[in-house]
Design brief:
dTMP kinase, alpha/beta, five-stranded parallel β-sheet, nucleotide-binding, Rossmann fold, single chain, 8 helices, nucleotide biosynthesis, globular
């Protein structure tokens, strides 16, 4: 594998989509053969699983939820992510394994170690070169979601304790892997967040000193 995988993580409302678009444009400007993907989704099977797991009309148990996310991720890795990385592309991925560690491992209380093992199997052990964690207070993230105008999905309907547990788990992941995970203050204006994110991955972009 000769490509580079950068993942973007954080609570809903942290600004991951905005940052991902800005990073894609900046990476291409700097000469990277860059591609942006999202999770769950990216390929046909994963997009169908996305519809299921986010549908507020469905009851999905915590273990089933973890398995659905892992299945969608496994298909994305096999069908698209590994081939693109093998082709040497610079891949930006909106969510990856850390989302399941935080949401299902922490938020659902299934255990980070257990969810990590499930996803090691699903991804074949694929890990990002760098992860950008957009840290935001859960209440601020929720207020941003309320202003989007679209209805909440199944996970967004959960209570404050759920999102507080997710935020704690993200912080624990960042503390355990400071070399991989770079924490960015998502409460700052989008332009400042993009600037911070670019500084955090500049060594991985084309032309960076070795």
């Amino acid at each position: 594998m000769v490509g580079t995988l950068i993942t973007i993580e954080g609570l809903d409302g942290a600004g991951k989509t905005t940052l991902a678009s800005g990073l894609l444009a900046a990476a291409r400007e700097r000469g990277a053969d860059a591609l942006l993907l999202r999770e769950p989704g990216g390929v046909a099977l994963s997009e169908r699983l996305r519809e299921i797991v986010k549908d507020p009309a469905l009851r999905v148990g915590p273990r089933a939820e973890a398995l659905i996310y892992a299945a969608a991720r496994a298909q994305l890795v096999d069908e698209l992510l590994l081939p693109e990385l093998d082709a040497g592309r610079f891949v930006l991925l909106d969510r990856f394994v850390d989302s399941s560690l935080a949401y299902q491992g922490g938020g659902r209380g299934l255990g980070v170690a257990e969810i990590a093992e499930l996803n090691r199997f699903g991804t074949g052990g694929l890990a990002p070169a760098r992860t950008l964690l957009l840290r935001i207070d859960p209440a601020l993230g929720r207020s941003r979601q309320d202003g989007r105008g679209d209805g909440p999905d199944r996970l967004e309907l959960e209570d404050e304790r759920f999102f507080a547990a997710i935020a704690r788990t993200y912080d624990e992941i960042a503390a355990a892997e400071p070399g991989r995970v770079r924490v960015i203050d998502a409460a700052r204006p989008p332009a400042a967040v993009l600037e911070d994110a670019l500084a955090a991955i500049t060594d991985l972009l084309p032309g960076a000193p070795e």
